[in-house]
Amino acid sequence: MLELLAQDDVLYFCGFALIFLLLYHHRTKDEDIIYFILADVFYILGELCYVTISQPTNIPIDFVFFFFVYFFIFMYFKRRTKSLIKNPTLRKNTELNTWILLTIDFFIIATLSFLIFYYFDRSLMSSQLVISNFNYGMAINLLYPVLDFLMLGYYVYINRVYISSDEKAYLPLTVGVLIWTISDFLFAFEVIFQVSAYGIGDYLQLFGIVMLIIILFLFKRNKINSDYTTIDLYQDSSKFGNFSTLINGLIFAYLAIYLYCLIEFSNSISLMITISELGVVLLGLSILRQNINNYVMKRTLINLSKDAKTDPLTGLNSRKFAFSLMRNVFISSLNLNICISALMLDIDHFKRFNDAWGHSCGDYVLITISNLIKRSLKTSNIVCRYGGEEILIVLPGIDQNKGISIAEKIRQDIEAFDFHYGKMESAVRVTVSIGGATAGNNTQNERDLIEQADAALYKAKEKRNNIFWFSSDGTVQALPYQSLIGHSAKL
């Protein structure tokens, strides 16, 4: 038994690491180092328990100690999130999509690990693998790679959802845990298939553990706290793309192994059948992964397109998008000899809502009026937030008389609506001023039409709660049925 302990390279490394961590903690009093110390202590206890108790008796008591290794590393990652900033560029489904992709990646790693086990860790590649007497101890061994990947997945998730500054540590730490996961899969397959010709797994696990502990320590020393003055909050720095690149690289590694075996071991029917079957599994997982990525990308593009076309507050068209639509509509109207009108609407005394009840009340008024306008119009009309509390409405196929009727209906609907928000003791009435114009001989392009409607709005705002129209003779006139106003003004 002592000879087995003396031959355990991992135990030696963990012992030296524990001494180093204790000395570092004594010098710096860094509380985070305690998580590393406890994880190292429990790993040493787990190794001792495995050699002295679990291996001779086939009772997996060592799992209890190894479980706490993962627990303390997880707690360290959890503690990190308290000082990180949520990435504002990511949407609400990001977390779910990340874990779905990570789950697929886990099965990709499991498939590749079995391929490595089948090729490197079997004395006879042509023999059949048989699972006999599957028991609790075998199941425990499968939990280790699951815990490895959960630890890796949580770390990748942090870098996906939070703004993190561990650029240098991300890639080597991720590679280290991936290698550790593969090595634990190899150990599990050895136990399940009762194969004792184990070789490469020992070296993989030692390499993975060494890299993990060193990188965690270096990451702790070099960690930069989040700083609003130096971090671009709207830059996606999740580094998740690097992880996807690693997974794709492993899939290409399978192709290299397949071609090598096809050249060197084409006569080994059992080997080639197994490798081909694993290839089919990897193909299916890769296609599923790519489809999920395509779906996420498509949804992202749809959302970006919607954001580019829509005003985020009111849900109306953005000014830039509305202008691009209006240009095409205006040209088509001229070519087909169809009327086109425009309304420019402004909320009367809008500032008083912000001053009296806060800017959120002003937003409420603007949103409500936008909804009332959309309710009064057909879908073929173009409505956009022109700027501030001004709203531009483009009416294709509408002449002056119909345009005036639409404008008056909008004005009446808004005036009749009871606005009640927050601390208002009673509902208030809101009125709007509207300027309108219909394209005529003096309208050369869509911007001329907007300027004419804006000129009419300028006059309407002098009286408030009124509609003025830019006439074909170049005058701005009050509507004749509004008896309170009875003048016209030359531009």
Could you characterize the architecture of this molecule?
- It contains 15 helices and 9 strands.
- With about 500 residues, it is an alpha+beta fold.
- The strands form 2 sheets. Strands 4-5-3-6-7-8-9 form a 7-stranded mixed beta sheet.
- A hairpin with a 4-residue loop joins β7 and β8 (about 475-480).
- α3 packs antiparallel against α4 (about 60-80) and α5 packs across α7 (about 165-195).
- The longest helix has about 40 residues, at about 270-310.
- Residues about 480-490 have low confidence and may be disordered.
Kindly list the characteristics that best describe this protein:
single chain; 491 residues; alpha+beta; two-stranded antiparallel sheet; 9% strand; disordered C terminus
Give the CA-based shape. Answer: elongated
Query: Could you say which structural class the secondary elements and strand pairing correspond to?
Result: alpha+beta
The fraction of residues assigned to DSSP E strands is: 5-15%
Strand order in the sheet with the most strands = 4-5-3-6-7-8-9
Low-confidence region ranges:
481-491
Q: What integer is the average pLDDT? A: 80
Question: Number of DSSP strands?
Answer: 9
The number of helices is 15
Rg measurement, Å: 35 Å
Helix fraction? Answer: 55-70%
How would a textbook summarize the main sheet? Answer: 7 strands, mixed
Distance between the termini: 103 Å
SSE pattern, N- to C-terminal: HHHHEHHEHHHHHEHHEEHEHEEE
Secondary structure blueprint with pairings:
Elements: H1 2-6, H2 9-28, H3 32-57, H4 62-80, E1 85-86, H5 94-120, H6 136-161, E2 162-163, H7 167-193, H8 200-222, H9 240-264, H10 269-309, H11 319-336, E3 340-347, H12 350-357, H13 359-376, E4 382-387, E5 390-396, H14 400-416, E6 432-438, H15 446-463, E7 467-470, E8 475-478, E9 488-490
Helix pairs in contact: 2-3, 2-8, 3-4, 4-6, 5-6, 5-7, 5-9, 5-10, 6-7, 7-8, 9-10, 12-13, 13-14
